[in-house]
Amino acid sequence: MPIDVPLLLDQTRALLGARLSHAGVTVRITEVEAYAGETDPGSHAFRGRTNRNAVMFGPPRHLYVYFTYGMHHCANIVLSQDGSAAAALIRSGEVVDGVHLARQRRGSAVDRDLARGPARLTQALGLTLADNGVPVLSALPKPVDEDAVVLHEVAPAGALESGPRVGVRGPGGDGALFPWRFWLAGDPFVSVYRPAAPRPRSGT
DNA sequence: CAAACGATCATCT
DNA sequence: GATGATCGTTTGG
Q: Gene3D superfamilies, from UniProt (predicted)?
């Protein structure tokens, strides 16, 4: 069963402007990227299910957290139909609650950079591999567990823009084929674009 | 101001 | 054994 790409992109764009909360910090999401599972050369799921990406193959509205570069965590929300391995990487946001906590977690960063970038955002929210696979709850009338991950979707405000995904090499990084990075137009809390670097040579 | 680079380890081949 | 959906610092113009 092929992935419904238009649905995936709609669900990804719908995350813009939403509030994501965990462990005392809330961010307003300003930038996201769509990943279409096994059909997408940029996706961790492209080469099939592994222990790391297993959560992507599970039910939607769960968190896929991975560890990379020996020091960074990044967080995705699993989307679309069960088993399709579709997900959205949460790339940037503005801390709108729990700023003091976020500052503690982010060290000497200026406020604009508290959650601008996928690893920064994940650190500001206090998410780690321990949160891989946890459900993403909807905002409820009752207060939920302080350590739960909660997503509160709101009506998107303003225009959206799109472009190539960041840091993806090969066909998956081709902005003409996969213009699957979305952000709030003109928002200062959006990461700076860095083209995927060609791999450094080992010899000569 | 921009470009280069080192950090540091889970995961996959 | 190589690589990475990155970041912060350093280096150079």
A: Methylpurine-DNA glycosylase (MPG) (3.10.300.10)
Using alpha carbons, select from A59, A58, A57, A14 the residue that is nearest to residue A34. Answer: A14
Q: Give the CA angle between residues A168, A12, A95 to the nearest 5°.
A: 90
* Structural domains for chain A: 5-184 (3.10.300.10)
pTM over 0.90: yes
**Which nt is closest to the CA of A72, judged by C1'?**
C6
pLDDT of residue A151: 95
CB A199 under 7 Å to nucleic chain B = no
Q: Cα Rg for chain A, rounded, in angstroms? A: 16
Distance A143 CA to C3 C1' (A): 42
Low-confidence ranges of chain A (pLDDT < 70): 1, 141, 143, 193-204
Task: Give the containing element (helix H, strand E) for A90.
Answer: strand A86-97
